[in-house]
Amino acid sequence: MNREDIQQQIPHRPPFLWLDEVVAMDETSIHARKFLAEDLDVFRGHYPDFAVLPGVLQCEAAMQAAAVLISQSIVTDDGRVPVATRMNNVQFRRLVRPGETLDIQVTLTERLQDTFFLKGRVSVDGKVTTRLEFACTAAKLTGE
User: Fold this and answer.
1) 92: Cα separation from own chain's centroid
2) How many CA atoms lie within 13 A of 113 on its CB side?
3) What is the CATH number of the domain that holds 33?
4) Which residues, at least 6 apart from 4, have a Cβ–Cβ distance to it below 8 Å?
5) Is 46 a catalytic residue?
6) Structural domain count of the chain
7) Candidates 3, 31, 33, 46; catalytic one
8) Residue 73 belongs to domain spanning
9) Average of per-residue pLDDT across 138-143
10) 3-class secondary structure, 19
11) Is residue 118 within 8 Å of residue 136, measured between CB atoms?
């Protein structure tokens, strides 16, 4: 799945789309990637002399991958989209630098109606950078 395909599944768009491709996906797991170009705006302001990708953006990448996975299980043409409702046991294990590629793996551990419980792991070159457990639910986005 390329960026265009991803954008058909979730509402995120550049500059806040943190997925470039989906490498593999089945009913309960997804593996996605994001290349971190050196000219990303976030690197200009987050420790500009030693640019580092914020850990919360690694979590966001995992949650966006989860949204793609969840979009396969819920009807999204009724205006509902997956939104994060909680994060637990978040661990930041390694700094992520410009020019690296995130490998994002998310596994669905449980589903209760339209609430999804997931585990995420972000890594670079086989080394874990972030681990997290989180939940998402299908919510209707309205302008009200």
Assistant:
1) 15
2) 3
3) 3.10.129.10
4) none
5) yes
6) 1
7) 46
8) 3-140
9) 75
10) coil
11) yes
